[in-house]
Amino acid sequence: MTKQVTIKEAHYVKDVTISLRTNSQLKAIMEELGKRKGMNLTDYLNEMIVAQLKQEGIAVTVSRQF
């Protein structure tokens, strides 16, 4: 059985706030990896989350509503 989750795109432009406990070097690395794919940090993290959910058998649909 497959679960389905619908995610609505955010209506704001703002970087994800990384926890103060997280190393700033890790944030810089993730930003660089996102830039290589043409994404900002938020989009890159969202892509990683969606990929993980798909591996767990959860279908994700991103709804773009403006």
Account of the 3D structure:
The protein is an alpha+beta fold. The protein has one domain (3-63). 42% of the residues lie in helices and 18% in strands. It is built from two helices and two strands. The chain has a two-stranded parallel sheet with strand order 1-2. Helix 1 packs across helix 2 (41-55). The longest helix has 15 residues, at 41-55. The N and C termini lie far apart (32 Å). The mean pLDDT is 74.
Secondary structure layout plus pairing:
Layout: E1 3-8, H1 24-36, H2 41-55, E2 58-63
Parallel strand pairs: 1-2
Question: What's the gist of this structure?
Answer:
The chain is α+β, with helices and mostly antiparallel strands and 66 residues long. It is 42% helix and 18% strand. It has helices at residues 24-36, 41-55, and strands at residues 3-8, 58-63.
Q: Residue ranges: pLDDT <50 for 5 or more in a row?
A: none
Biggest sheet: strands, sense, closure? 2 strands, parallel
Helix content: 40-55%
Number of helices: 2
Radius of gyration equals 14 Å
Beta content:
15-25%
Q: List the domain count as a whole number.
A: 1
Structural class: alpha+beta
Order of strands in the sheet with most strands = 1-2
The chain-level mean pLDDT equals: 74
Q: Total strand count, please?
A: 2
Distance between the termini: 32 Å
Helix-strand topology string:
EHHE
Shape: elongated
